[in-house]
Structures are given as C-alpha cells and as structure tokens.
Write a structure and sequence with these properties.
Layout lengths: L1 H25 L9 E19 L2 E6 L1 E3 L4 E10 L2 E17 L7 E19 L4 E20 L8 E6 L8 E9 L4 E8 L10 E2 L5 E2 L5 E15 L25
Antiparallel strand pairs: 1-2, 1-3, 1-4, 1-13, 2-5, 4-5, 5-6, 6-7, 7-8, 7-9, 9-10, 10-13, 11-12
Length: 256
C-alpha cells in the first residue's frame, strides 16, 4: 500500500510538472517566468523558549537570542503563480537557558548546532514573493555546548563542548510556518517535537558510579525568527531585464 501511494504521488508530480511546463512554453516571452530556482539566506535572529520539566516539576525557561551562524539554501519549484514547494538545507544554532536547581539562582545555557533539511509548501503570490509557507524539517545535531553558572555567578562558570554528542538525540523533527514578504524578508515560527535531551545518555560521576543526568528531563524548544533570503531567478530566454539608465553627465563645451 505504501509503495502504491508513493508511485501515485510521483506520477501526479510528473504530470503536474509537465502540464505547467507546457503552459509556460505556450506563453509569450514577456509573460514567462522561472519556475525552478535557488534561494539563499538565513535566520537573522532566533528568539527561543522551551517547555521544560525535571523530576516531575516545571523548570523555568529564559528567553534565548541567537543572532549568528544561522544560514542555508533552498531549491524552489513554483509550479503555478499561486503555489510552490521548496526543499533545502540550513545550519542553525538553537538551545535553551534554564534554572534547574530549586530555590537557588543556578542556571544552565545549553545549545546545539544542527543541520536541518526542510521541506515546505508555499501559497500566495509567487511573482511578488508575498506568500504563506509551512512544512516540516529533519535535523541532525553535530555540536553540543553547555555552560553552568553557580548562583548566577559568571566568574565561576564551567563549560564544555562535544562534537556529535550523545547528550542529545541523533536527529530531530520539527514543524514550521511563516510568511514571506516582498522585499526578501520573512517571519517564521518553529516547534520541535522531540526532547532536546537524550534521556538514555549515561556518564560516570566523580564518585565512579554511572548516572543518567537527563533521565527525568523533558525539554521541547520552540522559536520565532525574522529572516531573509535572496533568489537567483533570471528572466527566461527572450525576456530581457530593463536596464537601469543612469543620467549621462553633460559634456562641457571646449569652445571659448
């Protein structure tokens, strides 16, 4: 049954692509547009929070802002003027800030760098880039970092980082939705379904016994981001871009 569903979906996409391509060829060059193109950009700043529970009690989450190293690229297919799909990749910095110790001012900063693979749908005006979009994303964390501030004292902080750490799941799943504005700007919200921590992670305590530090820890991150993207669409063959005509400087007369 699953194989049949995949086959029907593939045939539907091929027929839809062929129909849109024939319609595009029948239009005069002045009305044609690029239906497939690449776009690149990133999340200008990520504001994230989390719903957190530890040992059956709610843990306070503090708003986190990550402005850097959030970038990616998408392959876009606008098969009609009012709809399209996209598939891409991105590198993203996400994490959470929590006060884990009851009655004290200790707090932790934890974050991962991850490779995300989004797949989404666009609905709106593809020509003017005003559209609503939504979809899902698979992620692969590849770098983990943790900072601990006892009693909120930044001078006494301890930190460590790990590549391909087992403290977090090997992959993540998320859903997103947002709106793209005409001038290459967009706003997006995203929610991660999986626990930020690997509850089965085991390490050795200073006393020599094995412990699971995240066994009773549950954290789901969600964020809002204001991003940007730029596409490389070019006019189809036969359709020329309008040149920007700068005013020519007036020549001074050399006559006396």
């Amino acid at each position: 049954m699953l194989h049949l569903t995949k086959t029907l979906l593939l045939l539907s996409l091929l027929l839809l692509f062929g129909h849109s391509d024939i319609n595009a060829q029948n239009k005069p060059p002045s009305e044609r547009r690029r239906t497939t193109y690449l776009s690149s950009g990133g999340d200008g700043g990520i504001f994230s929070l989390a719903t957190v529970e530890m040992d059956g009690r709610e843990v306070r989450s503090i708003l986190r802002y990550s402005p850097v190293f959030n970038f990616g690229s998408n392959f876009n297919w606008d098969f009609i003027d009012n709809a399209g799909v996209f598939l891409g990749w991105n590198i993203r910095n996400i994490g959470l800030i929590t006060r884990d110790t009851f009655g004290r001012d200790d707090f932790f900063k934890r974050r991962i760098y991850m490779l995300g693979l989004p797949l989404g749908v666009k609905l709106g005006n593809m020509r003017n880039s005003n559209f609503f979009f939504f979809g899902g994303e698979f992620g692969f964390p590849f770098h983990y970092k943790e900072k601990y501030f006892p009693d909120g004292n930044r001078r006494k902080k301890t930190k460590f980082s790990e590549w391909f750490s087992e403290r977090t799941p090997q992959f993540t799943t998320a859903a997103f939705a947002g709106f793209h504005f005409r001038r290459s700007l967009n706003v997006k919200v995203q929610y991660f379904f999986n626990n930020f921590f690997n509850t089965n992670y085991t390490t050795t305590a200073p006393a020599g016994n094995e412990v699971r530090p995240y066994q009773n820890y549950r954290a789901n991150i969600f964020f809002i981001t204001f991003g940007f993207d730029f596409d490389n669409r070019r006019p189809p063959q036969g359709q020329q871009q309008r040149p920007y005509n700068r005013p020519q400087p007036q020549q001074r007369s050399t006559r006396p």
